[in-house]
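Let's do one together. I've listed all components of the complex below, 520 residues spread over two lines.
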Amino acid sequence: METISILPPELIRMLIAVIIIISFLFLNAIMMGYLERKIAAHVQRRPGPMEVGFHGILQLIVDGVKLLGKELLIPFKVDRTLFRVAPLLSFTPVILPLLVIPFSEKLQARDLNLGLIFIVSMGSVNVMALLVAGWGSNNKYAMFGAMRAVAQSIAFEIPILLSMLAVVLMCNTFSLKEIVGAQEKIWFVFLQPLAFLIYVIAGVAETNRAPFDLPEAESELTAGFHTEYSGMGFSLFFIGEYTNMFIVASVAAVLFLGGWHGPHLPYGEYLGIVWFFLKVYFLLFLMIMIRWTYPRVRFDQLLNFAWKYLVPFSFVNILITAVLVKL
Amino acid sequence: MTFYQTIAEGLFFAFILLVILGSILTIRTKILMHTVLGLAVAFLGTAGIYFYLGSMFLTLMQILIYVGAICIVLVFGIMVGYTPTEVADKTIKDWRNKFLAIFSATTAFLLLIACVLKTDWVPALAENRDFSITHLGEEFLYTYCLAFELISIVLLVAIIGSIILARGGREDEYKTIEHLRSAKGNYPNDDAQ
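Okay, and this is what the predicted structure of the assembly comes out as:
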């Protein structure tokens, strides 16, 4: 019997969870890529990808194969080590937050009692990856993109944290599972509408999406920090961005939209994942619609908006929450 | 030793290795950007050691504050000022600075060694005290309240100082622009428009 338990069951469980999560990441990126192109096309009154499969549904798979087959170009004057490490560095911290997200009551790789802080700290490592990519490319566009990414993420990290803190104050825990559990009767979006609004705006900015996509503004910076990347290096950034969007949306679903709660389903503790995914993909749909509806803001408008409106409002919100909770 | 313990020990030495390699990279490289990245690696290793010691909170705070905030601000500063080709000048022979560096490093090292040797190390399990976050928070806000507030004053001073520096810098910049305008007739970037 001793020989059977060479690998501890907990370790095997984590390994399986990581494999499922990584394969989900790729699937999510493919789906999001397709959705984005299709929605963009319909917003602009054109059909979008139509050739490969029914309504172009296999387009992104074909694109993925193309990207896999492409040569990994390394420009002559880049910092070779950093240039190669950066895509991996941007990909790793986006896998880890998914380990603590409760997809449904019993589908969660690991319930950390500091889950929310874990997600936030991994997000800050991600910024480092953009910096390394931008600097390592030895390219002015990439450098400017990276610098904008940092300034933006520093500015928007504060309102995002404060809006999260309002929820944490209400349920007295950082564990995502317990936060969802506290929303059984009423979702926090109804109790904390301002925090939700601030979170969504700052979240869109944090993922570098339009109208806050200044780090990769095509019309000014070619492609921002990943200008010099080709093939899989580019794809890893691409997958990283979509996963980041997924994480921001799922944290919003967990904190404000009641996570897996919804009308009763059989095997609710597992099938709650249906409600969770509905909420997450609704938010992602919203983010895509925002991208194709609003023009890009100017950089000073972006920073002014963060520091002069979002930060004071979130401070007021947290003050009111603290007073009401402790009364 | 069980399998778990073997993994844990292995991780511990991996983290130590990470700290040492990061530190060596920090001081040996000639490129400033690599210095900061080495520092980030060393910080990550330190976070790993906290993790090994069982404090998830300290681990996450180490990553959030040191890697996520301090290193990024440092990198930001470097990116504003330096390009990748710009490396430290090897020919500098400033003996006074060298002496000061060796002196301060040796003193700090000796002081730390003295502290390590002097302390009576008790395993955390035998200490039998409350190390939970709740307890730590209460200690900070009640027992060590003064120290805690003093740290926040240091931060306040830093913020005020940076604001003053930034204000002065901008006025100087305007003066330079005015100077250039009067000297050359127009600002050098104007011809782009």
